[in-house]
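beta-lactamase: structure tokens wanted.
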Amino acid sequence: MKLPIACFALLASTAMSLAAQDMADVEITAEEVAPGIAVLFGRGGNIGVSHGEDGTILIDDQYAPLTGRIQQAVSDLGATPVRFLINTHYHGDHIGGNENFGHAGALIMAHDNVRERLITGTGRTPAAAPAGLPVITYDTGMTIHANGDTVDIIYLDGHTDGDSIVVWREDNVIHMGDLFFHEFGFPFVDVEAGGNVRHLLASLGTAIGMMDDETVVIPGHGPVATRSDLVNYRVMISESVAAVEAMLAEGMDRDAIVEANPVGPLRNTDGFISDEAFIDAIIASL
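Answer:
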């Protein structure tokens, strides 16, 4: 089912309060993508795990009611309790377990804008408790040297104004956060939180430039992907932007563009963001 942005925002704003009611049957599953690196799937954004002699690094943490199951899944990988927790952005389906992991001793890190948004809260993500706030923040990025690899955290915005990707240099794995929705149709661009389709395109181009055909790509949502998958995703977005821009240049207004729907034929699969919502995000980004 595809939803316009307004409906998505309404659902997202209630997600945290409803989480405890509908998480009972959620199973956390793991997929190893490189030695000592795995992806955890459950409810919410995909979780990256890096573990080894220097401790465990977790990328995102889904919802608070799932923390115990996530911790068990980490343990089942043979990993120690989480030492570092990286937030790819501030949305509740990626940071909902922050407070729990903070109380358990994890050091939380994120972009400056993520901390600011979690301090104040927004319509779709409430203000975080002190234990759930990032204690280390950065502007353009930072690097962790751990578990035999160099792990770069790089600020690349577009989905929001606080997005980061996580790059394992030696193991050739990249966690894209919600810059990449794989097999979910059009992206959700949170324009109310500084998201911008043009910035998204630029960030995707930067990330693609860091990859080769062997790179393992972890999307924010959806199955593990490849560089080719990300290239195709970016082409879909780029062609959609060009189509909307062309109609605007012809003097068509928003309603006429929605009626003509130039993006519909370009969508690679069904998803939860409607054609109309994506057109609105494009127009708001120009």
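The mean pLDDT is 94. The domain at 5-285 is CATH 3.60.15.10 (Metallo-beta-lactamase; Chain A).

Cheers.
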